[in-house]
Design brief:
The structure holds two protein chains of two kinds. By secondary structure, chain A is mostly helical. Chain A has helices at about 5-40, 45-70, 80-120; one strand at about 130. Chain A is rod-shaped, with a radius of gyration of 24 Å. Chain B is of the alpha+beta class. In chain B, helix 4 runs antiparallel to helix 5. The radius of gyration of chain B is 14 Å and the shape is globular. Classes of the chains: A mainly alpha, B alpha+beta. Strand 1 (about 130) of chain A pairs antiparallel with strand 4 of chain B.
Chain lengths: ~140, ~120
């Protein structure tokens, strides 16, 4: 069996893609927690749970894409072709990661805005006060 | 859930229609509807000027906070799950004057609007 340039390209591609995915997921996990704790009014177990579930989804989508995008249309013969192919594939993975990352941020910020609206104070001060006789 | 009492004008078709619509909306604050100048309204709020409440929509909070006219409209909007953001948007310093003008216009012409829209009894 010939373990040629193409196979090495695949291995490097996998190493870079997996490394990048893990790095982005960890960043999201670490910094997203603060947002979620705020959204869930300090309910840390719930925030951690949602955070974890989001990260799992993030991993699944990214690894799924990395796997699907692995195959090169033609085998590469030398280092130059290998680097070019790698750059193309890793570039695509980076864009998908970036897109997913912003999508996650969008979800976080929307949850947070929604929560702040639901607990918001009255929009205007009253014109005056009267006595209330309970029925 | 906190509660707001809405004193509305039962003689105006537009107000009745709005009341029907409001009953169906999902709420963050409970809305209790009481016809203005009714015995019930007078019993609940013995010190309120009930002549004023028939001129403009009035909302009263649990602690006796009174909101009249445009402010009452904003409070009703604020009570609705779907429209709370709009209450904040319409009450910003930039939009509040316009909100006041539009609400007063509708309020003052509510009988004519009801007639034109075919909502009058």
């Amino acid at each position: 069996m010939n373990f040629g340039v193409t196979s090495y390209t695949y291995l490097i591609y996998l190493a870079i893609s997996i490394g990048l995915t893990i790095w982005v997921a960890r960043t999201l996990h670490k910094n997203g927690r603060v947002f979620l704790v705020d959204v869930f009014h300090g309910n840390e177990p719930l925030a951690d749970s949602v955070n974890h579930l989001l990260v799992v989804g993030f991993y699944l989508i990214n690894f799924g894409y990395v796997c699907l995008a692995l195959k090169l249309s033609e085998s590469v013969q030398n280092a130059q072709a290998s680097i070019e192919a790698l750059s193309l594939k890793v570039g695509a993975v980076l864009l998908v990661l970036g897109g997913m990352h912003f999508f996650n941020l969008f979800i976080f910020s929307r949850m947070r805005r929604r929560a702040s609206v639901v607990n918001g104070p009255p929009p205007v001060p009253p014109d005056g006060f009267t006595t209330v006789q309970e029925a | 859930m906190p509660r707001l009492t809405v004193l509305y004008d039962p003689t105006c078709g537009l107000c009745r229609r709005a009341h029907e619509w409001l009953v169906l909306q999902r709420k963050l604050v409970e809305l209790v509807f009481v016809p203005c100048k009714s015995t019930e309204a007078r019993q609940r709020f013995p010190r309120l000027d009930h002549e004023l409440t028939s001129k403009d929509l009035t909302v009263v909070g649990e602690q006796g906070e009174v909101y009249m006219g445009p402010k009452a409209w904003l409070m009703v909007l604020w009570a609705l799950s779907q429209y709370r953001e709009w209450a904040y948007r319409l009450s910003t310093p930039e939009l509040l004057p316009t909100t006041r003008r539009v609400v007063s216009l509708i309020s003052q012409n509510r009988y004519q609007i009801s007639r034109v829209a075919g909502l009058a009894k």
